[in-house]
Amino acid sequence: MTETALILIDVQRGFDDPEFWGPRNNPGAEANIKALLDAWQERRLPVVLVHHDSPKPGSPLRPGQPGNDFKPELDGARADLVFGKKVNSAFIGDVDLDAWLRKRGITSFVLAGIQTNFCCETTARMGGNLGYAVTFALDATFTFDLEGPDGSVLAADELYRATATNLHGGGFATVRSTKDILAGLS
């Protein structure tokens, strides 16, 4: 039986800047991220922490800035792998995540983090395309309102629901709640 890894995407302090990012949704995301991390750590299951190293000069996620640091919910985490990336997918980062998972015989992972509709969704789609059994912990993610090309704004909750629909409808991932994921570990 293979182990299921927990991959936490971009759980960084820089996302706490509402002036930079705007309105967010799901204020309970961090508590759910912490619950997943605690459960994986307790069972000594593989944990991967990914951070976004933005190359953009004004980004709070730039390396060397306090915003690049992980949020307090990850304090004390015993990660099996920690690495950075400069794009949306964790499969295109400073480490070959696909090779790392395959070398360990890991064929499934639970995904959580920030932002729901960017780095989390992109990583889930690529994982699904690569043949992994991906479980997307929707309530352990959050995102921000986003302006479209016509100037209209989609609320974070709309983007959140769209990601769940895209992943489910496209067969990229199974979308579940933290509570259901944790119940399945018992």
Number of helices: 6
The strands making up the biggest β-sheet line up spatially as 3-2-1-4-5-8
Fraction of residues in helix: 25-40%
> What's the β-strand tally?
8
Task: Write the H/E string, N to C.
Answer: EHHEEHEHEEEHEH
Topology:
Elements: E1 4-9, H1 18-21, H2 29-42, E2 47-52, E3 81-85, H3 97-103, E4 108-114, H4 116-129, E5 133-142, E6 146-147, E7 153-154, H5 156-169, E8 174-176, H6 178-185
Parallel strand pairs: 1-2, 1-4, 2-3, 4-5, 5-8
Antiparallel strand pairs: 6-7
Helix pairs in contact: 2-6, 4-5
Overview of this protein structure:
This protein has helices at 18-21, 29-42, 97-103, 116-129, 156-169, 178-185, and strands spanning 4-9, 47-52, 81-85, 108-114, 133-142, 146-147, 153-154, 174-176. α2 runs parallel beside α6 and α4 (116-129) runs parallel beside α5 (156-169). The longest helix is centred in the first third of the chain and has 14 residues, at 29-42. Strands 3-2-1-4-5-8 form a 6-stranded parallel β-sheet, with helices on both faces. Helix content is 33%, strand content 22%. It has a single domain (4-184), classed as Isochorismatase-like (Rossmann fold, 3-Layer(aba) Sandwich). This is Cysteine hydrolase. Residues 4-151 form the Isochorismatase-like domain.
